[in-house]
Amino acid sequence: VTVPVLGVGAWSWGDRSGYWGYGREYGKEESRAAYKAMISRGLTFIDTAEVYGFGKSEGSLNSACFLGEFLREQAPDLPRPVVATKFAPLPWRFTAASVTAAAKASLGRMGLSSMGLYMQHWPGYGPQYFCNDAYLQGLADCKDQGLCQAVGVSNFSAARVRGAVKLLKARGVPLASNQARYSLLYRAPESSGVLEACREAGVMPVAYSPLCQGLLTGKYSASGAKPSGPRALVYGERRLTEVAPVIEAVRAIATERGKSMAQVSLNWCICKGTLPIPGAKNAKQLEDVAGALGWRLSEGEV
User: Fold this and answer.
1) Using an 8 Å Cβ cutoff, are 52 and 58 in contact?
2) Three-class SS of residue 254?
3) Which of 86, 176, 199, 216 is the most exposed, fewest CB within 10 Å of its CB?
4) Through-space distance between the first and last CA atoms of the chain, rounded to whole angstroms
């Protein structure tokens, strides 16, 4: 499956947990506008999951689909996005068949017959620890049944990536991607070997939270505005003080280049060989994100 070097994450669309401020700071119409801007700017790779927004980002059987609805509304002459979604290794899922069943349910909620990329959202833990091979077999089954064009994983360690590559290779199915939290402020995938394992195996590292949930946009600081809601507990004054030197370095490069801080931060991810999938709550944020394309940071800046 072929996608642009920059995608869009739909975690915030319809999220009712209060984490992103849906219903308070933005709503469905803003998400719809973001989708339209995404298509118009050629960012035709969108990532969601069955658990985002308690099912609303992807869609719900008991409410209007967000992404599915936007897809159906789209003019037929416009490019269709590659849709990626994920199944969760929930406590009642133990078998490969549970993966294919989850894929079919996701496709039904989004009104699709097939998706571009289907992923395991995180490794199984607890009783599900013993089901991880079955989950990978289920992903291969999804590919074989035409439910998806490619399969991937998310939040997998270097060892798990290598294991997944080996198991799927035996089925004749390549592992396309491993989604990992990665940004200028969170570089653990470098030291943990995750990026190296991906590159060795030809697996694309997809960077989620590449703007560190807004910190790298420059709109928050220890002495100024701070995130609201649950994010205030994660990114408090202490954390904002710790990251200030990096923020200021990004700000200096952005000023020199005439770019936004978000654009510099996303371009850095691209230069590091990852595919970032920033979120966009509205069209303005989407347009800012799209400005990360068409240019490249120098080696010294990276």
Assistant:
1) yes
2) helix
3) 199
4) 28
CA R_g for the chain: 19
Q: What is the pLDDT of residue 53?
A: 58
Secondary structure in 3-state letters for 156-190: CCHHHHHHHHHHHHHCCCCEEEEEEECECCECHHH
* CB-based contacts of 228, cutoff 8 Å, min separation 6: 21, 25
Phi/psi for 196 (5° steps) reads -65, -45
SS (H, E, C) 2-66: CCCCCCEECCCCCCCCCCCCECCCECHHHHHHHHHHHHHCCCCEEECCCCHHHHCCCCECCECCC
- pLDDT at site 62: 30
CA distance 216 to 186: 11
Is residue 172 packed enough to be buried (19+ CB in 10 Å), middle (13-18) or exposed (0-12)?
A: exposed
**Which parts of the chain have pLDDT scores under 70?**
14, 17-20, 52-65
124-137 burial code (b ≥16 CB/10 A, e <16): beeebeebbebbbb
Q: Rounded distance, CA 302 to CA 300, Å?
A: 5
Is 182 assigned a catalytic role? no
> Which residues touch 167 (CB under 8 Å, ≥6 apart)?
133, 136, 137
Residue with tokens 């790298």: 216
Distant-in-sequence, close-in-space partners of 84: CB < 8 Å, separation ≥ 6: 7, 45, 46, 47, 48, 115, 116, 117, 118, 119, 152
- Distances in whole angstroms, Cα of residue 238 to Cα of each of 181, 215, 217, 231: 21, 13, 18, 13
